[in-house]
Amino acid sequence: DTAVSQTPKYLVTQMGNDKSIKCEQNLGHDTMYWYKQDSKKFLKIMFSYNNKELIINETVPNRFSPKSPDKAHLNLHINSLELGDSAVYFCASSSDGSSGSFDEQFFGPGTRLTVL
Amino acid sequence: AQSVSQHNHHVILSEAASLELGCNYSYGGTVNLFWYVQYPGQHLQLLLKYFSGDPLVKGIKGFEAEFIKSKFSFNLRKPSVQWSDTAEYFCAVNAPSGTYKYIFGTGTRLKVLA
User: Fold this and answer.
1) For residue range B37-46, what is the model confidence (pLDDT) as tens digits?
2) CB within 8 Å of A96: residues ≥ 6 apart
3) Which residues in chain A have their CB less than 8 angstroms from residue B104's CB?
4) If we measure between CA atoms, which residue out of A23, A25, A98 comes closest to residue B96?
5) B44:A43 CB<8 A
6) How far is B114 from chain A (nearest CA, A)?
7) How far does the CA of residue B93 sit from the closest CA of chain A (Å)?
8) Averaged over A69-79, what is the pLDDT?
9) Backbone angles phi, psi at B101, to 5 degrees
């Protein structure tokens, strides 16, 4: 059984388009994350939700908007895609992070976004 | 602000060589420390973690790490690497009494020659 799943695995699109990436975890975790990994493998946190509440919102363009319909899902919507958005986006989840203490993160397989 | 430094960006070793990857963090309070591995084309997975207790932590696949509080370090070691250890290794820090952030280092790319 897949613990953290993401769809799609690959996403190729034109500049200016709007796209969404979906993430689901079946681990019963309270906290979910979105990370961006650039071509140099640098991993940067973008957002984190704890029980559907946004708790981390890094300096990310407003074009990126996370949505958490329930604590098992955290989707990422990107408006007006730009070339610099090309990267691998990883979803992750962990047990309780509400007090600031996060345990091991379980990562999804990643979504490779290519903006042409 | 918290930061995590991994000074070795690329490491090339022959099989059976010993490995030590450095990780230093900049936060004076209590920290939770992690090492993750990312095999080519795959997602990150946990190698080991330290929350408290014995500063020498053993993880999967023969890896271990030592937390040295006075040096703000959490170096990863393996006495004898294998070709299958070729991967990207990330150190990560979470400071519970600081911000909610979970900070990753820039990663170390390890290549093991058969």
Assistant:
1) 999 988 899 9
2) A30, A31, A50, A103
3) 35, 43-45
4) A98
5) yes
6) 24
7) 9
8) 94
9) -70, 150
3-state SS track over A49-76 = EECCEEEEECCCCCCEEEEEEECCEEEE
Enumerate chain B positions whose Cβ falls within 8 A of a Cβ in A. Answer: 32, 34, 36, 38, 42-46, 49, 88, 90, 92, 94-104, 106-107, 109
Residue A112 three-state SS: strand
User: Mean pLDDT across chain B, nearest whole number?
Assistant: 91
- The predicted pLDDT at position B97 comes to 64
Q: CA B71: distance to chain centroid? A: 15
Q: How confident is the model at residue A99 (pLDDT cuts 50, 70, 90)?
A: low
User: Residue A103: its chain B contacts at CB < 8 A?
Assistant: 32, 49
Q: Do A90 and B43 touch (CB under 8 A)?
A: yes
For B28, residues 6+ apart whose C-beta sits below 8 A from its C-beta are: none
Chain A residues within 8 A (CB-CB) of chain B?
A: 33, 35, 40-45, 48, 55-56, 90, 92, 97, 99-105, 107-110
Q: What is the mean pLDDT of residues B3-10?
A: 90
Q: What is the pLDDT of residues A21-48, one digit of tens each?
A: 999 999 999 889 999 998 888 888 898 8
Both tokens of B45, joined, read 């997975």
What's the mean pLDDT in B62-66?
97
